[in-house]
Amino acid sequence: MFSAYQYDVHLPANLEQDKKYPVIFTLHGKGSNERNMYGLVAPLAEDFIIIGIRGNLPLGTGYQYYDLKSLGNPIREMFDQSVKDLESFVHYATEKYPVDPDRRYLLGFSQGAILSMTLALTMGSQLKGIVALNGYIPDFVKTEYPLRGIKGVSIFASHGEYDSVFPVRIGHETAAYLQEQTERVTFKLYPTDHGVSEENQHDLLEWIKKDANLI
């Protein structure tokens, strides 16, 4: 297998031979990069393998995973390809590193959140859980993609009450859709714009540790 993406990998400092570790794959927002996401989950680096996946399309000083026709309207062919390539990357990294396949998490912001939720719906129980920060699920994913059941997938979704990119209404609609698919949804609002507050970070870290049976 090969990787369609450049990426950063952080292995636990005291790596034990023959031990499998939970993993967090981070997916950044449009125009950002894989390193910007590491700070969000760095406090988990002793217990998790953390892999930041860089979008393969340059955008300004950063990157993206797909381009848009307009806000909230992905170019379908590019979006489809990124979903396919990211699923392949999850399997690639699972083979290459000492990853516990039963504890694979995706954590995404904005464009990364959109992809994380889409991958949960297409990969189903191959993922243990996802964290989706300020994103949504494209309508064509809900109606045209071959979806798997996500009853066993844990989901932490959050949204900024004053999000100027994706209005908070979108956060509520996304949470309602996910809650129809699984009871394992935690949805929280924070008094922020299109970003992640310290409170949001604290809550998602505690959620991940609890879901991965580390506390």
From TrEMBL:
<dbReference type="GO" id="GO:0016787">
    <property type="term" value="F:hydrolase activity"/>
</dbReference>
<protein>
    <submittedName>
        <fullName>Phospholipase/carboxylesterase</fullName>
    </submittedName>
</protein>
<dbReference type="InterPro" id="IPR003140">
    <property type="entry name" value="PLipase/COase/thioEstase"/>
</dbReference>
<keyword id="KW-0378">Hydrolase</keyword>
<dbReference type="InterPro" id="IPR029058">
    <property type="entry name" value="AB_hydrolase_fold"/>
</dbReference>
<dbReference type="Pfam" id="PF02230">
    <property type="entry name" value="Abhydrolase_2"/>
</dbReference>
<feature type="domain" description="Phospholipase/carboxylesterase/thioesterase">
    <location>
        <begin position="18"/>
        <end position="210"/>
    </location>
</feature>
<dbReference type="InterPro" id="IPR050565">
    <property type="entry name" value="LYPA1-2/EST-like"/>
</dbReference>
<comment type="similarity">
    <text>Belongs to the AB hydrolase superfamily. AB hydrolase 2 family.</text>
</comment>
